[in-house]
Amino acid sequence: MTTAPTATGPLLQPSGPLLVARDLHVAFGPTTALASASLEVHGGEVLALMGPSGSGKSTLLHCLAGILRPDSGTVTFDGRDVTAMSDAERSALRRSEFGFVFQFGQLVPELTCAENVALPLRLAGVTRRDAHRTAREWLDRLEVPDIADKRPGQVSGGQGQRAAVARALITRPRVVFADEPTGALDSLNGERVMQLFVAAAKDTGAAVVLVTHEARVAAYSDREAVVRDGLVREQVPA
Ligand SMILES: Nc1ncnc2c1ncn2[C@@H]1O[C@H](COP(=O)(O)OP(=O)(O)OP(=O)(O)O)[C@@H](O)[C@H]1O
User: Fold this and answer.
1) Which part of the chain is the ABC transporter domain (predicted)?
2) Which of 49, 66, 185, 198 is 20 to 30 A off residue 215, Cα-Cα?
3) Which residues does ligand 1 sit against, CB inside 6 Å?
4) CA–CA distance from 158 to each of 28, 150, 194 (Å)?
């Protein structure tokens, strides 16, 4: 039986880039989403992908996360060629190494918030009791202990996003992918969610790849990359 990871404690990070995208091309019919996009993500860093609407940010995120296979180009994670993996291998990689936070939490409405947060551990074979204890620790850490027994429909947008962050980090992934994680929140709530998210990711040693339109959200990153016309045009220290 697998034991539940604890909610705290740093991990050692390898040197060199953890995730590397080289010359990615993606077309949706006549639309070129990625033209020749290259990017490196280092272990433990928070990287913001900025750029105009339709420039290819989400497509790049999906390729990096092994959700979408590019038409050409390669993505390597920890030296493994993600683009050469079968669908089953990529799914297994996503479950074991990656976490995800989307704009609208995407919590399972029928489950309580604690059950939602515990879900990745349950899928990894952790006992119900251990998974739920760890889920509650994560909800405490994200300052929403009171939502544990509520369903997503009974909590606010900001509370739900905190549960989504807890669910993304509970397996201590090496990378968390976040697509507009605060896009549906007011600025005050969004800032607090980002503070808690980045602090928790730093504690666990997870890298964060974040798509955002908002400079205020990107300000929480260590580095910004600008995507324009399907290319990564600039990578500047945040
Ligand atoms: N599934 C799809 N089918 C067809 N076209 C798509 C699909 N996904 C993305 N596109 C197109 O590819 C281009 C890049 O889209 P993408 O979502 O990556 O941009 P983005 O920078 O994330 O945009 P936004 O900031 O508005 O979310 C756009 O022209 C978009 O319309």
Assistant:
1) 19-238
2) 66
3) 28, 31, 33, 51, 53-59
4) 33, 14, 11
